[in-house]
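Limitations

Structures in this collection are predictions, not experimental determinations, and the ligand pose is part of the prediction. Treat each record accordingly. The example that follows, with nicotinamide-adenine-dinucleotide as the small molecule, is included so readers can see exactly what is and is not provided: the inputs are given verbatim, and the output is the predicted complex.
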Amino acid sequence: MLNVGVIGTGMIGQDHIRRMTRVLAGVRVAAVADVDASLAARIADRAGARAAPDGEQVIADPQVDAVLVCSWGPTHEQYVLAAIAAGKPVFCEKPLATTQQACLRVVDAEVRHGARLVQVGYMRRYDAAYRALKQVVDAGDIGAPLMMHCAHRNPRVPAFYEPQSAITDTAVHEIDMVRWMFDDEIVAARVLVPRRSRNGGDLQDPLLLLLETGGGVLVDVEISVNVRYGYDIRGEILGENGTAALAERGLVTVRRSGALAAPVPVDWRERFLAAYDVELQEWIDALAADGAPAGPSAWDGYAAAVVSDAGVAALRTGERVAVRMAERPRLYHRPAPQAR
Ligand code: NAD
Ligand code: ISE
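Predicted complex:
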């Protein structure tokens, strides 16, 4: 049984605590903390866990084998570094940290530790539809991929959402997904800006982010965060010999009164419900089997931050911005493909 300590008991913290207490196997929530102590106490009570006074004490707790960081982005670095210092596996919700320099400090600390402890919460890699899409690409069924068209639509965003959040908070999921889907690095970013949606007030919304991969795949990502009608995630890949796309979702379509209707998820919790379950179960199972995580690494968190910085610079300047990454440490080298 893996005893997990959770730091941050807001929206996603509560959702992960619910799945660890009611859905997943081989795990128990041992301790929780939040800067809002009364919230932490309520959530701890519901989960049968201890409410700790702060995140550091969750990490230090001898009853805690592994840590889940679900607090606000700017606090992630301090907790991930503390978990590495304590030698405990840590699952950190995205982003790994809010600057590429901070992500590199985490990478350096893990490299000094000498083994992987960190996994970052890029859950699209665990979504059944994205996994099926990747299988089609990897099998060569549509020939070499040439382009990918994506849309990331949120019904609305909170008041603290900033102009760059469209890239650093929202499209960062596509940035990670593209690196994984094509097993390649993103080498440049551009941003195009249409007229503003009146639903977004002063926010420049929507945006079109263009990403180029090293292998020459061009990816466009429409980011619209005030569409009101629901949470809508789309992706279609054009290959040399065909196309493959994420299928429409929902179990039922209704034809009635001259119209065809299908449900649209209300938010990310509903759309990626199963992906979060698989993501955390695989994390728990990997720790039980190997004592180390196998999902998105601190290096992936760093790479996503470098590409988002290029996207933010492209938004600011209107220019094509090249992505420049540090050298990948050996700890994060992938095993060479097996000869057939
Ligand atoms: P939230 O505001 O609902 O919850 C964050 C919680 O962290 C709050 O309760 C806050 O009081 C607490 N907190 C802040 N600073 C803290 C600190 N220093 N120590 C302990 N607790 C602290 O936000 P959320 O929507 O749950 O997002 C949390 C994180 O999860 C963010 O990094 C966000 O990007 C990420 N997230 C990921 C996904 C995904 O799809 N993977 C979805 C939503 C959020
Ligand atoms: C949120 O933090 C997420 O990660 C969601 O998956 C994303 O759709 C949303 O735009 C972010 O704010």
